[in-house]
Amino acid sequence: MARHEHEDGAPQSRNPSSEKIIDFYAGDYEVNDSPIEQVKLTVPITDNPSEPVLTFRTWVLGLTSCALLAFLNRFFSFRQNPLSVGPVAAQIIVLPIGRLMASTLPTKVYQCPLTKWRFSLNPGPFSVKEHALITIFAGCGAGGVYAVHIVIILKAFYKRSLHPVAALLLAQTTQLLGYGWAGLFRKVLVDSPYMWWPQNLPQVSLFRQFYQSLNHDSKILVRALHEEQERPRGGVSRLQFFIIILVSSFAYYTVPGYLFPSLSALSFICWIWTDSVTMQQIGSGLNGLGIGSFGLDWSTVASFLSSPLAFPLFAIVNMLIGFILVIYVMLPIAYWTNIYDAKRFPIFSCETFDYSGQVYNVSRILNQKTFDLDVGAYNSYSRVYVSVLFALNYGLSFAGLVASLSHVALFDGKHIWQTWGNAKSESEEFGDVHTRLMKKYYDPVPHWWFHACLITSIVFSLIACEGFDKALQLPWWGFLLSVAVSFIFTLPVSVITATTNQAPGLNVITEMIIGYLYPGRPIANVTFKTYGTISTNQAISFLSDLKLGHYMKIPPKSMFIVQLAGTIVASSFCFGTAWWLLESVENICDKNLLPEGSPWTCPGDDVFYSASIIWGVVGPGRMFTSAGNYPEMNWFFLIGLLLPVPGWYLARKFPTTKWLGKIHWPIILGATSKMPPTRAVHFWSWGAVGLFFNYYIFRKYKTWWARHTYILSAALDAGLAFMGVFLYFALQGNNIEGPHWWGNSNGDHCPLATCPTSPGIKVEGCPVF
Length: 769
Hints:
Layout: E1 22-23, H1 37-42, E2 46-47, H2 56-77, H3 87-104, E3 109-111, E4 118-120, H4 128-142, H5 148-157, H6 164-189, H7 201-210, E5 213-215, E6 220-222, H8 238-252, H9 254-259, E7 266-267, H10 268-272, H11 277-283, E8 293-294, H12 298-302, H13 313-336, E9 352-353, E10 366-367, E11 372-373, H14 375-381, E12 385-386, H15 388-425, H16 433-441, H17 447-466, H18 476-500, H19 507-517, H20 522-552, H21 556-584, H22 605-618, H23 635-642, H24 644-653, H25 665-670, H26 680-700, H27 702-730
Antiparallel strand pairs: 1-2, 3-4, 5-6, 7-8, 9-12, 10-11
C-alpha cells in the first residue's frame, strides 16, 4: 500500500465523498479500538489518507499564527498584567480564513523547475488535518521561550551586556534540545495506546465539532467538510458569537488599558483607612491579603493564572483551597508572630532584602570583573532575607514537588506500572486501531532526524556557554550535567504526564543541584535550570503534539516539520520582541525610574531575578542550611511526601465518598507557587469567574456552556491582545500617555501595604514604628 504524505499540496478531489476513506466500522478489518475508554469515546477510528495536509494554506496561516502569538505573548509579558493568548484563539480565527482561501485561491498546479515536486495554492476543501497543523504551529508560538528571562535579567536587572548571537543561540537551543529526547522515547510514548495523553482529547473533540458530517449510506465518518454554523433561533452562530465578544473585548480594554488603569485592581479597604499600614496590608489586592479586592479587567482574571474558563471545577476548587490556606491562615500567623523577622519586610514581595529592611544591594557582593560572589563582601554586608510569603512559597514548592510524586505513586502508581508494562510489550506491534492506521499509511520520522536535532542543539549550546566571553557562566561540564538531568527525568515525567495529565516541575531540583555544585554565579544557575528543565518540558510538549497528530491521523513527517519550523520561528520572534523592547523602552523593568502609570514593570522577570540571587549568587548552602535564614524550609520535603497519604487512605476506605478522591495535594500546595508575581486580586477575580462559569453556568445552562465557553475565553483573550498592541503602537509607544488623574495609576492606591511594621525600620515613604 502506498504511503500518503501529501506535503506537495497537489489538488485532491473536491468531492470528499468520492475519496477512499479508511473506516474500521465498515467491517473490512478486524476492529481493535483503544483500550482507554476516554479515547474510545472521543477519537474516531477513521482516516482519509488523501486529505491535503502540509499545504500552502498550512504554511501561510500556521507561520502567521505562530509569529503573531509569539510576539503578543512576549510583548505582554513585560506589562503589569501580562496576557497569554493560547492557540485556541488561532484555532478559531483561522477556520473562516482557511475556508475563504479554499473558495477563492486558484487551483492551478505548479511544477517546481528541475524537480518532480508539484504544488497548488488550493488543493481542495480546507481539511481538518490542515487545521490541526496550523493549531500546532500556533501552539509553538503560544508556549513562550523560558530562556528569554535570562536575557532580560542580564540586561535590565544586572545591567550587563550580552552578545545578541549568544542570546539567540540560548533561546533556540533550549527549545530544540528536548526534541532529541522525544525521538528516543516516541515509540513507547506515542505509538502505545496506553500512553494516551489526556490533555489532547479536548482538542480532538473541538476539531470534531468543526468538521463533522455523517454519511449514513456508507457508514463513513467524513471529517473533510466544515460543520455548518447554523444560527439557532433567537441566537447567534459560534462564529458570530466569537466576533461579537472579540469586538467588545477590544473596545472595552481601552478603559483599563489606557483611560482608567486602576480598574485592574480595586481595593476599597485602602480607600477607607488611608493612614493605616495594617489595614492596607489586609486590603491591598496587589501587595497584601486582598480582602475585598477585585478587578474589572479580563487581564486581571487571566493574566497570571490563564483563563479560568478552561479549568475543570475540581482544579479551581483545589486552587482556591490552597490560596486561602496560605494567604489567610499560614501567612497572617507567620507575619504577625514575626517568624524570620517578617515584620522587617513587606508582607508580600518578591524582592530580596538585607537585615535593615532595605532592598538587597546585590552589586555590593558581586565581583564586577568575574561577576560572581565576593564572599568577604557578603560576610561584611548581610545575609539575604525575603518576605515571609516568598519564604513559605519556597517551602511549599519543595512540598509540592515531592507531593506530586507521592500523589501519583499512591493514586496512579499501580495503573502507571501496568500501563508501562503493556506499552513495552506492545511497542513493536500495531497496538490499537490508531497505531495500525498510522503505521499502514504513513512513513515514520527517520531516527536520524531526531539525532541530528539533538547533536546540533548540543554543539550550539556548548558554543553559547563556552563562547562569547563566557557571559552565560556555565562551563561545559555544567551544561552536560544539565543535559544528563534532563535525559534522566524525561521518561518518567513523560509517563506520568501521558497517563495522569500531571507534570512534576523540575525547576527547584535543577536550581538546587547547580546551586550546591557551582554557587556564587547567578547566570550559570539560571542557565543550568533552563537547560535542565525546559529540555524536558519541550520533549513532553513535542510528544504530546505527536500524540495529537496520531489521533488526527496526520503524517508524522509533516508533524515533525511543523513542530521544528514552529519552534524556530517562535524562538526567533520571542527573542526579537524582547530584545527590541529592552533596547527601545527606557528604564524597562525598573519600577523606581518608570513614569507613573507605566505598564512595563516585568512582573515575572523580577521573580526570576530574585531566584538568580537566592539560588545563584548566594546559593542554597547559604539560604536553606544552618548558615542561612531558612533551614526549616527543608522539612517541607517530608511534609509533601506524607500529605497525600491520609487522603489516599480515606478514599480507599470510603470509595462512595467521591469528593475524597478529588482532594489533590499537589494542586493545593502549588496553588500559590506563582505568588508573586500573581497577587491576591488576581486569585479572587480568577476564582469568581471560574466558579460562576464552571459551576453555576455549567449546571444551569449546560448547552450554552458547551457551545460558547471556550469560544468566549479565546475571544476575550484576542480582543484584549489586539487592543493592547494597538494602544502601544498608536499612543504609548509615541509617549502619548493617558489622562493624568487618580485612576491613571497601575497600582491599587495602597502605598502603605509595602511598608514594614517592625520598630525602628526606616523605608522611604513609610512611617517609622
